[in-house]
Design brief:
This protein is of the alpha/beta class. It is built from 8 helices and 17 strands. Strands 3, 6, 7, 8, 9, 16 and 17 form a 7-stranded mixed beta sheet that branches. Strands 12-11-10-13-14-15 form a 6-stranded parallel beta sheet, sandwiched between helices. The radius of gyration is 20 Å and the shape is globular.
Length: 340
């Protein structure tokens, strides 16, 4: 891999018409590949990447080869190359600057669902402007905040509701920050890691150990990525209540205890997924509108609390290995493409 990495370093540093792309080639493995950057056609632009973000939940499943065969097409990233399980060029949290294309866009910072790659050619309609009040690094959280918006549309918490979010990862924390904006809402985040308390409370929510969750909530959202977290969410739902499941488990089995009072309490499990706008808003909102909303919401500096470690793009081999091994941080890791 050393020769490939060296070629990638040279290309990324010196040749504006080439790109360095990160491909996942096996369980926790990957390689840099040099790819040409073609001349943009009408309605296209060349984007030089500033930052990409690691979508920990989904990308952990990708680097482990755990995308179910039935979901290979539905789970393709918009600009993915290759096919699941391997090799794939993946990623969808990308913030960059337009270098070539329509004059009105040149020099502007954009968010796009592009992979981990130093330069890309993309349709103009796939680029969403980053508001001037949002730092470029924070803007990689647009995908997480967009997911949180959709989950809250599905869960529909109301004024004064007790909202319980199980899981204090990036999605859970984004949900907490947005839910705290509902007048009178009491927002609690439960997690197995007591170390998350500081971040949760700084976001304006209450923290509860997952081993001792609070009593019944009006709205229960599971974002832990674990079967144990989903079981805890079931225990906290009210009678005739609903648990909105934001986690995606890939090909991993999720055992649940659906005996005891599950039926007598008439509980319901409902999935929420960002691939489509929530049914309650689908008549008026398009996915681009929802993403633009997420970027505007990121003007709130509290979202910086969701940003984890930063690594140079050169360290993607280590980052990928950490995702596969389960040693990656819980919050959103950012990849810096400005370094040479």
């Amino acid at each position: 891999m050393g020769d490939t990495t060296q070629r990638a370093v040279e290309v990324h540093a010196d040749r504006s018409k080439s790109a360095t792309a990160w491909w996942t080639t096996g369980h926790g493995l990957g390689e840099f590949r040099t790819e040409p950057v073609r001349i943009p056609g009408p309605g296209e632009a060349v984007v030089r990447t500033l930052w990409t973000g690691i979508s920990r939940g989904t990308e952990s499943l990708v680097v482990r080869g755990m995308v179910p065969r039935s979901e290979h097409e539905r789970m393709r990233a918009p600009f993915q190359d290759g096919d699941f399980p391997f090799p794939v060029k993946y990623g969808y949290l990308n913030v960059g600057v337009v270098e070539e294309g329509p004059a009105a866009l040149r020099g502007r910072t954009m968010f796009a669902l592009l992979p981990h790659q130093s330069r890309s050619v993309a349709p103009v309609e796939a680029l969403v402007p980053v508001p001037s009040g949002v730092p470029a690094r924070r803007a990689v959280l647009a995908g997480s905040v967009e997911t949180a918006v959709n989950v809250l549309w599905d869960a529909a918490p109301a004024i004064g509701d007790r909202v319980l979010i199980v899981g204090a990862g990036t999605i859970g924390c984004a949900l907490a920050r947005l839910a705290c904006g509902i007048p009178g809402a009491e927002v609690t985040v439960a997690d197995v890691d007591q170390g998350k308390q500081r971040v949760v409370e700084a976001l304006g929510a209450r923290f509860a150990p997952a081993t001792d969750p609070p009593g019944e909530a009006d709205v229960v959202i599971e974002a832990s990525g674990s079967g144990a977290g989903l079981q805890r969410a079931l225990r906290s739902a009210p009678e005739d209540g609903e648990i909105v499941v934001a986690s995606w488990y890939g090909a991993g089995p999720v055992p649940l205890e659906l005996g005891a009072d599950f039926h007598s309490r008439r509980l319901r499990l409902r999935s929420s997924q960002v691939g489509a706008v929530a049914a309650s808003h689908r008549a008026r909102w398009m996915t681009r509108d929802r993403l633009s909303l997420a970027l505007r919401l990121l003007e709130d500096p509290a979202f910086d609390l969701l940003l984890g470690a930063t690594a140079s793009w050169r360290r993607l081999p280590e980052v990928t290995a950490g995702l596969a091994e389960g040693t990656a941080g819980e919050l959103c890791q950012t990849i810096d493409w400005s370094t040479r």
